Amino acid sequence: MTTKHQVSPPRGGDTALATHRWRATPWLFLLPGLAVVVLLVLVPFVNTLRLAFTDSMLLRPGDFVGLDNFRRMFDDERFGTALLNSSLYVVCVVPFMVGLPLVLASLLSGAGRLMGFFRTTMYLPVIMSPVIVGLIWTNLLDKQGLVNELLGTLKVVAQPVPFLTDRWLLLFSAMFVTVWTGLGYYMVIYLAALANIDPSLYDAAAMDGAGPVRTFLNVTVPGVRSTMALIGVLSSVAAFRVFGEIYVLTDGTGGVGGGDLTMTMLIQREGTGLQARTGYAGAISLVMSVILGALLIAQLVMQRKQRTF
Asked: Which residue among 83, 114, 169, 307 has its CA within the 20 to 30 Å range from the CA of 285?
């Protein structure tokens, strides 16, 4: 005679406890990341927001001064120079960052060891330290550097070009270094996007007699349009926050008379040292955050409008 074991149904309390544990499990996985975001992003941002309305210095907490830091900022000639330089950086660098890596990715998207060699070569500047990159180009662009020696040998110029002493030449030289450094990074992003384009579209374009340029404009560009918008956003933020290239090329001085200061360099100059005005630096940081936020919103709106057409 067999004995049947009756399984009693789970009690209501056990079911509720198991459901509660199941709902809490995802948060346990998210907790380390959330802790990092709170400690390294949210807390510093709140502290910067607090400092922006005080006359705090490095060795003194400071008192609440309202909008005095912002009034001082807009009367500060250095702030106007830094804002102009950072804005010019965005206007000049972003189009090259969006277009040139796409051309490179299209040329180097094929298989083979030679293509892999060229892709690796283009990516090398990305993994190099900004300081090393700056030192390389400082030596190349010096009055007695390789570039001036080559121009002089070819009789292109009679006198050395002041790449590192003229305000505008130094700024555009730093832009060139930024583009040279970032090409490989954005090229890799485009390579991933190109892999998702349906090959039959290229076959159809070839059957219609489309050449390389027409195929690039009518097949490749529409296929990576969303990626172009993403790179536009990323490169805009990076260009407005430029620091390393200008800092190294100017040896930390910001150019002759500080004419090549950028927003991040001004924040670094005001927020470091024994006489650091951390309250004023916090106000500049807050304005910079607002400008970047407005820039991102504008680009997202433009991207949405392009999708509707």
From this structure: 169
